[in-house]
């Protein structure tokens, strides 16, 4: 199955008992045993993460270690190795970045990825990510697939909760487009973002126990009782969330560079490197199904001073020759015959799916709502006047 028109493909990834999984990589004897990563009970330590075998005893993260030991006297306490966790967390993000540059880490063991521009459906990439993270890093992960961040994250949690093994859940839960509200409806209200114990209590007093109850409650009433948040609650309860996956700056470009084994001023060699970099970038863009609008050239001279110069293309592209052409143009402007080069890099930035650069990168919820209104207006026009009535803006004027 490919794209369902108008729906985004968002995957939420959560590493299963992350700290414990990393500790098991370093000490296989921990496997299947009840253990917890955290501080010692004598020093009022807290459980940072606990194995699934430990969870059977009722141990949970954030619990006092002293209490955890009371619940399970044979509990093994492992001290954390935070650097290991950080390094592996970065590697998980690198793997995700191979599928889309639109990755938003939200904690050390959780991230969102937007795959809307990709060809296959979200489940396909969720499976690939799960397998790759397991085979390359040895880490178990659970994933939620949905048309937005809110539902994808809830999906991950439900997938994990539904897993009945004593081992890592390795769950994948998909919520098909259009089924967001139905999926959320039977869940307790506190499964929603922004619903803490206090809000849950207030909602219960009004007879709302499930998310479906909130969705069915009159929006005006919710707003009257909860203020601005009431409206948000009502939207979320219907499974609506237009918030974009926020990208960190580094992931917005694809580049290749090479330090020469010997500094070179051979123009043919330098041009050849520009060509091969451009080809690599083009292959990578195609794999990601992205186009770039800006080409960058990086030159480092033998004294290590480095210049980076860029230029915008008239049309976004993934074509190797176009990237090369622009890179050569920049090169000619900044390189003088005879000057030696230590490193040469080519990069492409201002990435987006073909034809959607601005919409994607400048997306804010308000624009998304505007887009939606526009889309429904267009659909209404089409329904009334047929396909031909809505094309370009100029055509629209004519039909008026
Ligand atoms: Mg986790």
Description:
- The structure is a single chain.
- This protein is an alpha+beta fold and 400 residues long.
- The protein has five domains: 99 residues, 2-Layer Sandwich (Alpha-Beta Plaits), CATH 3.30.70.270; 65 residues, MutS, DNA mismatch repair protein, domain I (3-Layer(aba) Sandwich), CATH 3.40.1170.60; 56 residues, 5' to 3' exonuclease, C-terminal subdomain (DNA polymerase, domain 1, Orthogonal Bundle); 100 residues, 2-Layer Sandwich (Dna Ligase, domain 1); 34 residues.
- It is built from 16 helices and twelve strands.
- A five-stranded mixed sheet has the order 5-6-1-7-8.
- The longest helix has 22 residues.
- The radius of gyration is 26 Å and the shape is globular.
- The C terminus is likely disordered.
- The structure holds magnesium ion.
- Magnesium ion binds next to strand 1.
Main beta sheet: strand number and arrangement? 5 strands, mixed
Count all strands and give the number. Answer: 12
User: What spatial form do the alpha-carbon principal axes imply?
Assistant: globular
% residues in beta strands = 15-25%
Rounded to the nearest angstrom, the radius of gyration is: 26 Å
Major sheet: arrangement of strands: 5-6-1-7-8
**Count of runs of 4 or more consecutive helical residues:** 16
User: Taking all residues together, what is the mean pLDDT?
Assistant: 85
Low-confidence stretches: 356-368, 384-400
Determine the CATH topology of the largest domain.
Answer: Dna Ligase, domain 1
Percent helix range: 40-55%
């Amino acid at each position: 199955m490919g794209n369902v028109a108008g729906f985004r493909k968002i995957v939420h990834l959560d590493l299963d008992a992350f700290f414990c999984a990393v500790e098991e990589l370093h000490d296989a004897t921990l496997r299947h045993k009840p253990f917890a990563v955290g501080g010692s009970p004598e020093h009022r330590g807290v459980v940072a993460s606990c194995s699934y075998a430990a969870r059977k005893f009722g141990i949970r993260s954030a619990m006092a270690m002293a209490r955890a030991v009371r619940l399970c006297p044979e509990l093994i306490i492992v001290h954390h190795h935070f650097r290991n966790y950080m390094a592996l967390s970065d590697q998980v993000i690198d793997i995700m970045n191979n599928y889309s540059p639109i990755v938003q880490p939200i904690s050390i063991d959780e991230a969102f990825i937007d795959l809307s521009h990709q060809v296959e459906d979200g489940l396909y990439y969720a499976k690939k990510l799960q397998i790759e993270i397991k085979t390359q890093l040895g880490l178990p992960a659970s994933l939620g697939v949905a048309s937005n961040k809110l539902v994808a994250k809830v999906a991950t949690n439900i997938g994990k909760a539904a897993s009945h093994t004593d081992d890592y859940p390795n769950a994948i839960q998909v919520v098909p487009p259009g089924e967001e509200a139905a999926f959320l409806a039977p869940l307790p209200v506190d499964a929603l973002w922004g619903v803490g114990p206090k809000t849950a209590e207030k909602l219960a007093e009004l007879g709302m126990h499930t998310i479906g109850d909130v969705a069915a409650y009159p929006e005006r009433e919710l707003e009257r009782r909860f203020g601005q948040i009431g409206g948000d609650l009502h939207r979320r309860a219907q499974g609506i969330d237009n918030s974009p996956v926020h990208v960190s700056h580094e992931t917005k470009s694809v580049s290749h560079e090479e330090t020469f084994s010997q500094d070179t001023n051979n123009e043919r060699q330098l041009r050849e490197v520009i060509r091969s970099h451009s080809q690599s970038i083009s292959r990578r863009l195609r794999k990601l199904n992205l186009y770039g609008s800006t080409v960058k050239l990086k030159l480092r001279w033998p004294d290590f001073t480095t210049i980076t110069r860029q230029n915008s293309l008239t049309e976004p592209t993934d074509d190797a020759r176009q990237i090369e052409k622009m890179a050569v143009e920049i090169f000619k402007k900044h390189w003088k015959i005879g000057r030696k080069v230590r490193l040469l890099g080519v990069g492409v930035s201002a990435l987006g799916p073909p034809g959607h650069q601005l919409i994607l990168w400048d997306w804010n919820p308000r624009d998304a709502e505007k887009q939606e209104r526009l889309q429904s207006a267009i659909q209404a026009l089409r329904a009334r006047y047929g396909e031909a009535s809505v094309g370009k803006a100029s055509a629209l004027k004519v039909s008026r």
